[in-house]
Design goal:
MetI-like fold; four-stranded antiparallel beta sheet; 14 helices; about 400 residues; alpha+beta; five-stranded antiparallel beta sheet; 9 strands
């Protein structure tokens, strides 16, 4: 009854929308949580179990060698070797033994505490605490201690060593700084230029304004790959004339600004053109110049649109690899985070603790930026897409 009342109050279409958004959020969060948890785990636990078992502990498979035959003592007709599997020099991490075996293909053949008949009159018992009793009805003839395989339960444990390794010895720290050096100016520069252009195209009347607006809209659909080489050639010619290095942050800032400005001008122009006309005209009657109107009135009112574009521009420049490789280079001190992570995939493809720590460092800044500005995102985009002047 209560469920039916709730359904009627909310409405079936709204309930479907809410559930769909919830499912999408869960599907988006699960991989992110998995990367974070994996980046904080020990390498052995990552190899032995999935990240979803991190809080309940994990079972690691390891090997150990029992005591040498010379340590055997006679107990009636039998010969006995005893000790702890965790005392062996080649033993894995300590924990609670869940199962054991004498073959690498069957490391969990026997349960902990079970007296296992392993043939040739030999009986082996390995307890949960690692103590063992190895019995034979004749003297031991092997030169070395018998090798056993263990399934050891490890308590949940987390470490920051993966991040220390990534930030110090893998070059991710320098790449992180490089990405910030690229992304912050490459986000601010096109916003500033586009805001001025959007105001001019919205509230200032001059010949050719309609043509400029059409050109801006047309530039939005120009593929990045098609314009990259001509832009690089032009930049090298201008840089050679002014003495600017061909591989510098100035080049990549200008490239990102050039690729981002058409969309920025289009969104901001539509938003600014939809601002109340009375406010602009009242300011002009009071004697305010266009610059004063822009700085004191238009910019504060346009903050949602500015924030929404800032999110997209920052995410694009932060996650970019192609433009960074072309304009900044591929040297170790020049790599951005995406390039450094790509290099790690080739050199450390099996070390998931290093890769996941690097990946989470790569995504943590965009996540912070998105959640800090997300309340302005929908408002700015909707206003910029439906208003026009």
């Amino acid at each position: 009854m209560t469920a039916a009342i709730t359904l009627r109050r909310i409405g079936l279409p709204r309930l479907i929308v809410h559930l769909s958004v919830l499912v999408i959020c869960i599907l988006w969060l699960i991989p992110t949580i998995g990367i974070l948890v994996t980046s904080l785990r020990e390498p052995g636990q990552i190899a032995s179990s999935g990240w979803w078992t991190a809080f309940s502990g994990a079972a690691e498979t390891s090997a150990a060698r029992l005591g040498e035959p010379s340590t055997a003592r006679q107990d009636g007709p039998n010969y006995v070797i005893s000790g702890s599997v965790f005392d062996a020099a080649d033993a894995g991490p300590k924990g609670s033994v869940r199962a054991f075996g004498t073959k690498v293909a069957a490391p969990t053949e026997f349960s902990a505490g079970e007296a296992a008949d392993i043939g040739d009159g030999e009986t082996l018992t390995v307890n949960e605490d690692g103590s063992y009793t190895f019995t034979k009805n004749a003297p031991f003839t092997d030169k070395r201690g018998k090798r056993v395989y263990l399934s050891v339960a490890q308590p949940a444990s987390f470490t920051l060593d993966n991040y220390r390794t990534v930030l110090t010895s893998q070059g991710i720290g320098q790449a992180f700084i490089n990405s910030l050096t690229v992304a912050i100016p490459a986000t601010i520069i096109p916003i500033l230029i586009s805001a001025f252009a959007a105001y001019a195209l919205s509230w200032m009347h001059f010949p050719g304004r309609a043509i400029i607006i059409a050109v801006v809209v047309g530039l939005i659909v120009v593929p990045l790959q098609m314009s990259l080489i001509p832009l690089l050639k032009m930049y090298n010619e201008i840089g050679a004339f002014f003495g600017i290095a061909s591989r510098s942050y100035v080049g990549i800032w200008l490239a990102h600004a050039a690729f981002g400005m058409p969309l920025a001008i289009y969104l901001l122009r539509n938003y600014i053109a939809g601002l109340p006309k009375e406010v602009i005209e009242s300011a002009r009657v009071d004697g305010a110049s266009d610059f004063e109107i822009f700085v004191r009135i238009v910019l504060p009112l346009s903050f949602p649109a500015l924030a929404s574009f800032s999110i997209f521009q920052f995410l694009w420049t932060w996650n970019d690899l192609l433009v960074a490789m072309v304009f900044l280079g591929t040297g170790k001190d020049q790599l951005v985070l995406t390039g450094a992570l790509n290099a790690l995939l080739g050199s450390m493809g099996g070390k998931w603790e290093i890769l996941t720590a690097s990946a989470f460092i790569t995504i943590i800044v965009p996540i912070i930026v998105f959640f800090a500005l997300q309340r302005y995102l929908v408002r700015g985009l909707l206003a910029g897409s439906v208003k026009g002047g």
